[in-house]
Structure formats: structure tokens, C-alpha cells
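Quick start: read one record
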Amino acid sequence: MNAISAYLTTLVFVAQKRLDKASKGATAVEYGLLVALIAAVIITAVTLFGTKLSALFTGVAGHINAPA
């Protein structure tokens, strides 16, 4: 999770460095859309992975608690 946070922070930092006064409006919108898309992909991946991981742990717990 720290790597993702560092990547997004770096992305925002680079975006701010590249913005100049002449094209600030259009570039800011483009970078904002890019950051929003990356955030949506990360949220979707975490949600899907979390659901599968929860199912895996539930299955393991069921096998551990099953009578022998």
C-alpha cells in the first residue's frame, strides 16, 4: 500500500512540476482525470482481491473447524 501511495504522490508532484501558466487549466484537468482513473482501478483491485481473500480464509477456517 505504501508503494501505491508513493506512486500517486510522485505522480501528483510531477504533474505540478509540468504545469506552466500557459496551459495550466487543460493540463490540470487531464492530470486530475488520470489520477481519478488510477484511484478507481486501485479501489476496484483492492475490492476484488479483498473479497477473494475473505473467501479463502473462510474456507480454511471451515476445514480447520471441521470434525475429524
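The chain has one domain: 2-65.
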